[in-house]
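Lab notebook, bench 4. We co-purified these components, and the gel suggests they stay together. Before we commit to crystallization screens, I want a quick structural picture of the whole thing.
Request: model the full complex, all chains together.
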Amino acid sequence: MATLNDYLVLSAVLFTIGAAGVFLRRNLITILLAVEIMLNAVNLTFVAFGRFHGSVDGQIIVFFVMTVAAAEAAVGLAIVIAMFRHRGTLNPEAFKTLKW
Amino acid sequence: MAGDLAFFYVFAAVAVGTSLLVIGQRNPIYSVLLLIASFGALAGLYVLLDAPFVAVTQIIVYAGAIMVLFLFVVMLLNAPREEPIDPERLVEPQGARWFGALLAVFLLVELGWAVARGSRALFGRASFDSVRVEQLSSVRFIGTVLYSDYAFAFEVTSILILVAMVGAVLLARRHEKEV
Amino acid sequence: MLVLIPLIPFLGFAVNAALGRRLSKFVSGGVACTAMLASFGIALATAWPFLFGSADLHAVEQNVYTWIKAGDFVAPFSLRVDPLAALMILVVTGIGFLIHVYSTSYMHDESDSEYARFFSYLNLFAAFMLVLVLGSNFLVMFVGWEGVGLCSYLLIGFWYRKTSAADAGKKAFIVNRVGDFGFILGMLLAFVQFGTLDFQRIASALAPMAPEAEFGTVSAIALLLLVGATGKSAQIPLYVWLPDAMEGPTPVSALIHAATMVTAGVYLIGRNAVLFSHAPDVLLIVAIVGTVTALMAGTIALVQNDIKRVLAYSTVSQLGYMFLAMGMGAFGAGIFHLYTHAFFKALLFLGSGAVIHALAGEQDMRRMGGLKRALPVTYWTFLTGALAIAGVPGLAGFFSKDEILFRTFEHGHVLLWGVGILTSLLTATYMFRVVFLTFHGASRVASHGHGDPHGGGHPLHLHDAPPAMASVLIVLAVGAAVAGYVGVPHALGGDNRIERFLAPSFESSAAAIDAAATSEISTPTGSESSHGVELPLMLVSTVIAFGGIGLATFLFLLSADAAPRLATRFAGVYRVLTNKYYVDEIYQTAIVEPVQMVSRQGLWQGMDVRVIDGSVNGIGALVRGGATALRQMQTGSVRSYAAALFLGVVVILGYYLFN
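Here is the predicted assembly.
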């Protein structure tokens, strides 16, 4: 039987992979995917903690995270579409107008 | 019980491996498909954690709906493979990239350390010896809690979805002038 | 009622200042003269009870309004007339009015707006002088004091396009500022000491006290006020502004030298007679300052070639006499001389103005001469003034100057008396040098005038003073002749009316003077013995006066080359005198240049540029530098923002782990 530690370490590894992906990739869609990896890593900890505490709350928070992830994906992808239309590229470095 | 542990390692290996491939890909279509695989492995882990409902939702909502959305966008945009860095004109500041990756490593070290420091008594135990394990995997029980204790948050989430939907439509809409 | 005396000229100023641009010369001059005449009328009405009324009328007071009220400190804007002030307002408004009338003609070449500006300044000058004289406390007096300083600056620099005039105006203002500083300090010290600024209260607080045997607070107050007085009344060491003040139009010089401004210092001492008489040490300083100034200015006046400059130094010298009188405790005599001097100095200045006017701006006596025939009115009136100032018996200057010299001698200061007599000789000599060089001898008038400061440029034709000027000159000449008869000494069978008239203003100081005198030197001051001395003294000064005139006649009229030969023989002395003892140069190197050095190097380059600008610019540079550094962080790249965010997460997590 895997211990809580095992799950947490796995979650940490996944989260780090997601974080590294956000920085390493130069494609907005892949970056969003990396964010999804991070969200799932966190979900895993929620479920694991809930399981080992004997509480159902962890699972319920996971549902909420999923809804938020869905909303985030929808809005994020809409933005990606708009930006791609505008600039013809998905490279985040092309979008520097945050600085004026 | 040894079987459980074996399953855990299999699923963990799949999840980590596919995730690494997701961020190691230049082609977004492969990334999306690999991520679906990763989510599948996670769903397996949820089953191991006595959370079958979460596992099912993970497959249906995440791997099914959200990832399909991604796939759809990738196809829609006909997004090319990620452009390699143009060595002629190094317009992109590379500092933030590698700095971020380095930070990720630091984060891993820190998280590992945090887990290692954690109480063995709590984190090290294999299972919560409660009779409520049965309850945890019960959809009925989850539904009861969700619609009683979390009713308000649940309803707010519906508004969030609505707002996101409207926002997505608005953002992605083709402006008439631009056509 | 009292407030009207300064208020009417002030209204005249307001009218001319506000509307002068649109008024014709006739109207603006008329307004100014009418204001002065009205003011003189009210002054006369005010002074009447003092002149001819009952003897026990000491003062009339009017509290205009409470000016400042802060805690215990109350400064009412109140005016007070006592015999001293009554005499002063008569002089200021009377002589002032005559000068105004004279100016209507003298300044006629100016444009309408300049003309109005001139008269607005004149009226303002008179108004402030009247405030100064009438103020019942130091603070009100100070308002007038400062106002007079301002007006002198405006009027001396009236022809502001001329650099020398503008400089002279600034010089007058700045030198006076030094004196004002003394005045302020004295005033503050007086308030600390007596808790009031009212002259009468200070006097009554002092009256029961014995004169200070050693230098104490009262002496300090007196000394500080003396510094103020030397500034306004052009005494050593602050006299340097007055000779330069003749850069202004001649009527202004007359006004400054005769009616207003320079009399302020003497008046200040007179007003605070009680204070000064309680500080015998300071009184002695006053006398010495006066005597030295009188002698020094007299010697300088001997060799100057500018007619107005001679008169200017003569004023300084005569003011020295007044200070001598004040220093001897003979306040009445000092004020008496102030009063007679107002007549003949106004006359002399206006006479010189008539000469300058006739010669279209020429002021150098070496280019005058033989004007007697062309300018008869000017000549005769000027001669009267010269005789009066020289101290020829029967004219105004004789009585007042003699009174001073007599009181000095009587007081036992024979050395001061001797210097006074010597100065008297000098006075007669340089005055008649002016008379002879200007009006007698061969004409050295250049064929056409040059450097005419007031418009002009028309071909020179010698003309005597126009009616307005001439009538003023005649009135003043009469005044210079007879003004002295109000103070005929007892020794000549008179009753020294002015002394008696002024007595109420000085009565409490007289006691202090006597007390101080008896404690210091036991000179018998009985009137019996002094009568015996007074007549011979008068004889001496009469001889001296005529001697001076004779000397001038010999040097500048009869012998053509006597004066130049004298100048070459005593070349060193002559050079020192023509350069006015190099006082201006000494001030320049000892004070002006160090101050400028400190200002430029220390305050400007050091304080202003380094510290103030440095800190301001430094803050700017700091913000700019910091912003430039921070700006680098604003790459606009989403990823670098994410990296920063992530860094924060790692750091905070690390922090919790370490703790």
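The two ends of chain A are 56 Å apart (CA to CA). Worth comparing against the SEC data before the next meeting. The mean pLDDT of chain A is 86.
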